[in-house]
Structure formats: structure tokens, C-alpha cells
Amino acid sequence: MASVTATGPLKNSDSKLQGFQLYETQKAVHEYLQFHYATSEDVMPYARLLTGDSCNEDGLAFPHKLAHVCKAHAPKASSCSVLDLGCAVGGSSFTLATFEQFERVVGVDFSESFVTAARSMQTEQSATYQRLVEGDSYEMATAKLTDVQKQHAHKCQFFVGDACTVTAAEAGGEPFDVILMANLLCRVPDPAKLLANAKALLRRGGDGVVVIASPYSWTEAFTQKDRWVGGYDDESGKFVDSDSKLRDAMAAHGFELVETTDMPFVIREHRRKFQLGISSVHVYVLR
After folding, report:
1. Which residue has the higher pLDDT, 275 or 84?
2. Contacts of 266 (CB under 8 A, 6+ apart)
3. At what angle do helices 242-252 and 191-201 cross, to 10 degrees?
4. What is the 8-class DSSP label of residue 273?
5. pTM confidence score
6. Element (H, E) at 199
7. What DSSP element (H or E) covers 264?
8. Which residues partner with 158 through β-bridges?
């Protein structure tokens, strides 16, 4: 079993960092290991007290649910390659690898700390992390690959890279059939450049698929306001919503929107406090 970081108390100074620096901290690695690999009971032990899909078994498996969306819309070929762009610590990547049609799975993230954690999960199949109990008290927990993920983890590769500029050559060689962007759009400095690069990363001559999930949590800590894809009032005072703006931006690159859905995700802060988000999931096909 691997421990991806030191087991001492997480640094309070981490909370003072902003923007992309946050994703290089111990705190972020631990939180994402929990988000990607913890069981539903570990994340939300009070689900029985609540109602609604946001707190049931499926609502607590966000990275894995997105992998299933990719599987459902992948080109009808005997073998495909998939790029998990903004893979964090690899939860979606390892689930994608369990699907027979995906013979090559590549995860790319800007955070070297996240990629190190994903590679550790691949080689060691588990990792210890800390989670907040209450106040300043932490306990140790273990992130684990499932038995099926273990059998197929060898299909994964993980690279450090900028999602807005990374090339297929830098991400293992060949272009891709499917690209997943999980809660990435509102966490890059240039979303328009990200969307253009997605097209460049797809294999030519096929119905390439791009799955984009985002809660549209726009903030200037990550993206200058003039680069937001929606989430603002225009000069006439009319609200520009991100769903419509994203659809138009992708259409300009030759993509057709074939499915939209809302997908909940739950993030545990401590054992009695949780964040509930709802990502808008768009599935595009390059025509």
C-alpha cells in the first residue's frame, strides 16, 4: 500500500493558496483521492436521512458515471482510445480502462501532484490519505482500485500537461476517439482554447466524441471574466447562460450536441458537512 503524501497534519497554509496552486497541495490530493475512490458510505454516511438521486449510490460515483457516459457514446468500433483531460487522480481513467472497447486510456492533468497520485494508484493499486473528522482532527483512510480496475489498470497512461495546449504526441502518440473533460471547463485560463484543442486531439475521419461536464463555477481565480463561457450579463443586461454559450462554441468547431443531462456530485468536507454540486453534462459528436 502506498502513501502518496506524508501522514502528518495537513497544512493550514494550503487554504490561503488560490487558483491552480491549490491543486499541487497535499490537501487537494487527499480530497480528490476521497472524491474519486471512497465508497458511498464513506463519503455520505447520512444518505438514509435524505431523499433524491443526489445522495443515492449513483449520485456518489461521479467519476465512474462519467466514464459510463463515454462508453455509451463511443464510436462503434472494435477498439477506441480515450483521453481523460483534466484527469485529477485518475478515478474516471481506471473505470474507462475496464471497458473492452477502450484499448488505450490516457489521463492528462496540469497538476504534477495529481498525476503522481494517479500513477501511484496504478502501480500500488491503493493509497492512504487523510480526511477531516471535525475541527482540526484527521483520520487515515485508504483509496483502492476495484478488482476489475486492477485487472485493466495497465491500459492507462498518465501525463502532466496543459489541457489547453497539449498535443496528441505529448499524450502518448496517436489522436483519440473520445475525450472526457470532467469539471474542467471553468478551471482553465482559456476555455475557448481548450475547446479548440479538443478538436485537434480527435482522430480525423471518424465521429469523435467529446463529453464535457461542468458546474459552471466561474471565478476569476482561474479564468479572466472576459473568457468565461457564459455566466454573465451582456451589455444589454441579458443573462448569458453557460449551456447555450458552450453549445454555440462547440457548434462553431463542427460539433453536434447529441445529449445533455444533469449529474450530481457530492464532496465531503468533514463527517457532518458536504458540498452538493450539479454538473451539466454535454455529449458532442464531431461531424
Report:
1. 84
2. 43, 44, 54, 55, 59, 60, 62, 274, 275, 276, 277
3. 40
4. E
5. 0.90
6. helix 191-201
7. strand 255-270
8. 107
